[in-house]
Amino acid sequence: MTLFFTVHASQSFHDTSPTTQATLHDLSSLFPTSAYLQTQRGLLHLHSHQTPEAESVFDAIIHTSPHRLDSLDIYSNALYVAGNRPKVAFLAQLATATDLFRPETCVIVGNYYSMKSEHEKAVMYFRRALTLDRKCLSAWTLMGHEFVEMKNTHSAIESYRRAVDINRRDYRAWYGLGQTYEVLEMHHYALFYYQRAAGLRPYDTQMWHALGSCYEKLERYDQAIKAYKRALVSGMNFIEPSSSFGSSSAADEYTDVQLNAEILFPIACLYEKLGDKDAAKRYMEMVVAQEDAAPEASAEGSGAEGVAIAQGATSSFSAPITEAAAEAQSRRTSILGDPSSPAPLNSSFHSFNHERTIPTSEPPHLQSTGPTRTTSMAR
User: Fold this and answer.
1) pTM, entire model
2) Helix (H) or strand (E) run with residue 110 in it
3) Which residue among 19, 29, 227, 304 is the one 20 to 30 A from 154 at the CA level?
């Protein structure tokens, strides 16, 4: 029972350390058919930003335990980030057919309506989830995202604060507060919340990138450079955390490594503002090198190494934009990527069969011709 508690506590803190993985592996060897442990493995993949592996685990769970709704709301968040609306529609149909009065069901359906840009309906379903469970953390956080989309910043802040009251170690609510105050151009407030989020997720590129952007807007350029460099280090786990990227040899050493040019470029601009032309030149050379290497990484994408390089190139969080309207539109994604919107789906939804296969279209009562909205808010 101690090992079960350890795994549960580690998941609540989004801990993806080797110790947690080893503990889960040991438990899985003792209980190979446990749906709970399989769910924990899927969540571990999600927290590690390994979405394809998490999808395979959750698909297997749906196949073997089609009426199990535990943690499917978190899985729907990952599918939302990936822009996979057919699977979100499938989960919504499955959950509503299983139990209409579960908070997980309401959250999944709310995510689906959010993907259709029907934010009022999404808020309605998140409110239903909260009616069923006032401590549903996902519902409070996601409802805050929806209020940001609707430009109702007062309600968004209230929703995020409720989520923080429930669990002060959930980085998503802190990050959402930072994004909301950044929309309001209250950068000192945003900085405080970004610092809390980065403290909870010290190895998350998205947190440090947002923190660096906030420092830059406050004209605290030295701290902005440090935050951006930390974002680079966080995105590449094989780079020593002590690396300063400040010497000429460092620039040459990392030219062959796939780094995020969208982080390297603001570092170069900041060095230029500080009058350090040599450092600005080195980082601009690294930007050019990474941009030149991008087509080669795409060409190698069919192999295992190419996939790893492509994931490294797209895993960093894109810089927050300055216009409030565009910034509000980019609130809702997780941390890893900027997937393109899928084409409108017009075909009929496949009926559920005994194999529980994943359909490629939406149920008739959930079909929409509107585009999918993908954004940059942590889910």
Assistant:
1) 0.71
2) helix 103-115
3) 227
